[in-house]
Each structure stands twice: as structure tokens, then as C-alpha cells.
């Protein structure tokens, strides 16, 4: 009969320093998790910055309107028929309405308009009695223009910025 030797008693006991090996593996896993979280955070931050930049480009250009009545005005704020109305604007398009029912002048496009890179100016001689109002749009509206109310509703539906002047009553 062959004699069997007893199993090595040292096989059942861990090698010296085994705790440090376990801790190395635990730290390695923690490092990978932290790295994954860091990569996700950097990607999210980058996406946020790109979205903010893109959103900043979609902002409408500024819209401003400066109106001056050249010549004498009446004490009630109205103007005589021979008065001249000087309009300076920043924006894509200027329209002047008479009685809010029709466009009497549109810039750019009208021969009296002087245009610049961000707007323009015009001097208007009212063509008859009525209430005149100027409207500046941040984006070109297209078309020949309709009533003041229709153009305001169209601009609001498109999300355009507008500025409406005070009214000038001519009689």
C-alpha cells in the first residue's frame, strides 16, 4: 500500500501580505469607477457648453427705434400735414402704418430709406391725415405687409422681437 502523505498544511493558509493584494484590487475598482464618473461629467459639461453656445447664436438681433418729429408740433402732440417724421432704427425691417390698416413705407426697399449694416433711417412726409405708427422687426417679414395687427401676430408666432413707436396723429 502506498503511503499517502498528509496534505500540506500551508496550502490552506493565505500567503503573507494577502491583505495588501485585496486592497490593491479594491482600489483599482474604485479608480475605474471614479474615472468613469469623471468622463461622464466632462462629457455632460461639454454638451452643456455646446448647447449654450448654440443657444446664444439663436438670439435675435437688437431691435431699437428712435422717432423725432422735425418741425413744429401742436401742444396736444399731433402734427400738421406738412410735418416730417425722422425714423432711425436697428433691426431687419421697418414698416410705417397709416391708421394701422396699411403700410405706407417699408425699409429696406423704399427709395427714401438709407440702410446700414444693422438698420437704417428714413424721413417720412405723411401723405394725409391719420394716425401713423412705426414697427421694427428683428427678422425680415417678407410679403408686402398687411395690417399692423396681422404683422404683430405673425411676428409673435415666429418669435421675433418687435418695437412699436408711439403714434403720430396728423390732421
**Overall morphology:** rod-shaped
Number of helices: 2
Q: How confident overall, as mean pLDDT?
A: 85
**Major β-sheet annotation:** 5 strands, antiparallel
Number of discrete domains: 2
CATH architecture of the largest domain: Sandwich
> In total, how many beta strands?
9
Would you tell me the structural class of the helices and strands? alpha+beta
Binned strand content: 25-35%
Order of helices and strands: HEEEEEEEHEE
| CATH class division of the largest domain | Mainly Beta
Low-confidence stretches: none
Rg calc: 37 Å
Cα distance, first to last residue?
134 Å
Helix content class: 25-40%
CATH topology of the largest domain: Immunoglobulin-like
Essential attributes:
four-stranded antiparallel beta sheet, 2 domains, Immunoglobulin-like, 171 residues, alpha+beta, rod-shaped
What does this structure look like?
This protein is α+β, with helices and mostly antiparallel strands. It folds into two domains: 17-57; 64-170, Immunoglobulin-like, CATH 2.60.40. It has two helices and nine strands, in the order H-E-E-E-E-E-E-E-H-E-E. The chain has helices at residues 18-57, 148-158, and strands at residues 64-70, 84-90, 93-98, 102-107, 114-115, 119-124, 130-137, 162-164, 168-170. The strands form two sheets. Strands 3, 4, 7, 8 and 9 form a five-stranded antiparallel beta sheet that branches. A hairpin with a 3-residue loop joins strand 3 and strand 4 (102-107). The relative contact order is 0.15. The model has no long low-confidence stretch (mean pLDDT 85).
Amino acid at each position: 500500500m502506498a503511503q499517502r502523505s498528509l496534505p500540506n498544511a500551508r496550502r490552506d493558509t493565505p500567503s503573507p501580505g494577502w491583505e495588501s493584494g485585496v486592497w490593491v484590487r479594491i482600489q483599482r475598482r474604485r479608480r475605474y469607477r471614479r474615472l468613469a464618473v469623471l468622463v461622464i461629467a466632462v462629457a455632460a459639461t461639454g454638451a452643456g457648453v455646446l448647447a449654450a453656445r448654440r443657444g446664444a447664436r439663436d438670439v435675435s438681433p437688437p431691435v431699437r427705434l428712435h422717432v423725432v418729429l422735425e418741425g413744429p408740433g401742436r401742444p396736444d402732440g399731433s402734427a400738421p400735414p406738412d410735418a416730417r417724421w425722422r425714423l432711425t432704427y436697428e433691426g431687419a425691417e421697418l414698416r410705417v402704418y397709416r391708421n394701422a390698416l396699411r403700410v405706407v413705407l417699408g425699409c429696406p426697399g423704399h427709395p427714401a430709406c438709407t440702410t446700414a449694416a444693422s438698420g437704417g433711417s428714413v424721413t417720412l412726409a405723411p401723405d394725409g391725415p391719420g394716425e401713423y405708427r412705426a414697427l421694427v422687426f428683428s427678422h425680415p417679414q417678407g410679403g408686402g405687409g398687411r395690417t399692423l395687427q396681422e404683422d404683430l401676430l405673425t411676428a409673435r408666432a415666429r418669435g421675433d422681437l418687435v418695437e412699436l413707436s408711439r403714434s403720430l396723429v396728423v390732421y
